[in-house]
Specification:
With 343 residues, the chain is of the alpha/beta class. The chain has helices at 70-77, 100-104, 121-131, 140-149, 165-177, 195-210, 245-253, 267-276, 299-310, 328-341, and strands at residues 32-42, 45-54, 59-63, 85-90, 106-109, 183-187, 214-219, 230-235, 238-243, 256-262, 280-285, 291-296, 318-324. The protein folds into two domains: 28-250, Rossmann fold, CATH 3.40.50.300; 255-326, Alpha-Beta Plaits, CATH 3.30.70. The strands form three sheets. It has a six-stranded mixed β-sheet with strand order 5-6-7-3-8-9, with helices on both faces. A four-stranded antiparallel β-sheet has the order 11-12-10-13. A three-stranded antiparallel β-sheet has the order 2-1-4, covered by helices on one side.
Length: 343
């Protein structure tokens, strides 16, 4: 029913060996900084006035509908596109002028599958390793743990053309990690992937973050925002909001939400009493009699107040009251609606 109320079983993730973990960042300077950066293709086509500040060792999710500018943003941050205006710094360098050392520290998983279908999974990873100049003698010490990490060890000798779409996406993740990157860009990594495998992808991404890496992930699946440390919301080539998932919920809804169910005959009296409570900003009725959503600054603090307030001598019977976290799809729609109202 609600993402936050569904208890999803933990998925085991095979960690990469300690030797492959990059050194901890010596400081907390942002790894990506943009200041009013634009890549303009036409009057209303491109990315405009993009301002980002992404800390090291975090997962940043860029969400938005198809065509809103997510891939263009990734290409600008990886140096494929030079910005038309503004400033872009990634690891303290302008991406279109990346040094060889900087490029070696970046992993990239493109939106489209680009590995070779007539090579095996192992041969594809071996080819990518050769591009980075990994020594042939001990190359298996790097590639075998990667196959374990994405759970493709049993399919190592299978032609990529014979792998399922989900297995191909996992192989693409492994290919993006061959060079042991500090910063990883994943453009729509879970597109077309079933919900169970999407959860597996995000478990892998969190494991990489725990190893000190930074991930920049784009997605059309708005609900995946809850897996990120920071989220940027794009609309028509512009960044609408950037914050933590929790703060974006508060901005979209004007605070936090309490779900309240009272006996139906006392719904009207409940509405009257809630309207008089100083901590309540707004109350929304639903189609179910007695089912209400109560908006407040701090649900944790207000919830026990309301229990005492409503269960007094009023005759109101509180059947259910708890903190409610709306699906992020609702948050996303609300943020876009707020932005559209300012156009």
């Amino acid at each position: 029913m609600i993402d936050s109320l569904i208890e999803t079983p933990k998925v085991q993730v095979t960690p990469l060996p300690p030797a492959s973990v990059p050194e901890a960042a010596p400081d907390r300077r942002p790894i990506i900084v943009t200041n009013n950066a634009s890549k303009v293709f036409a009057a209303n086509l491109g990315v405009f006035d993009l301002t980002l500040l992404i800390p090291r060792g975090t997962i940043f999710g860029l969400i938005g509908p198809s065509g809103c500018g997510k891939t263009t943003t990734v290409r600008m941050l990886t140096g494929v596109y030079k910005p038309t205006d503004g400033e872009v710094l990634v690891m303290d360098e302008a991406p279109h002028k990346f040094s060889t050392r900087a490029r070696e520290r970046i992993g990239y998983m493109p939106q489209q599958f680009v590995l070779y279908p007539q090579l095996t999974a192992w041969e594809n990873l071996n080819f990518v390793a050769s591009l980075y100049g990994l020594p042939l003698l001990n190359r298996h010490k790097r590639l075998d743990p990667l196959l374990d990490f994405v759970e493709l060890q049993d399919a190592r000798n299978r032609l990529v053309s014979k792998l399922s779409g989900g297995m191909q996406r996992r192989l693409a993740v492994a290919a993006a990690l061959v060079n042991d990157p500090l910063l990883i860009f994943a453009d729509e990594p879970t597109a077309g992937v079933d919900p169970v495998l999407r959860r597996k992808f995000w478990d892998n991404f969190r494991a990489l973050r725990e190893q000190g890496r930074t991930l920049f992930v784009t997605t059309q699946y708005v609900s995946e925002a809850v897996y990120c440390d920071y989220v940027g919301v794009m609309r028509n080539g512009r960044l609408v909001e950037m914050d933590t998932p929790q703060n974006l919920r508060r901005k979209a809804l004007g605070g936090e939400v309490i779900r309240l169910v009272v006996d139906a005959p006392h719904e009207r009296d409940t509405l009257r009493r809630l309207d008089a409570h100083p901590s309540v900003h707004n109350v929304q009725r639903t189609r179910e009699p007695g089912h209400l959503f109560v908006y407040t600054d701090d649900a944790t603090a207000t919830l026990p107040e309301l229990v005492t307030y409503l269960n007094g001598d009023s005759g109101i019977h509180v059947e259910l009251i708890d903190k409610y976290e709306p699906p992020f799809d609702d948050v996303f729609v609300a943020l876009l609606k707020q932005d559209a109202e300012h156009d």
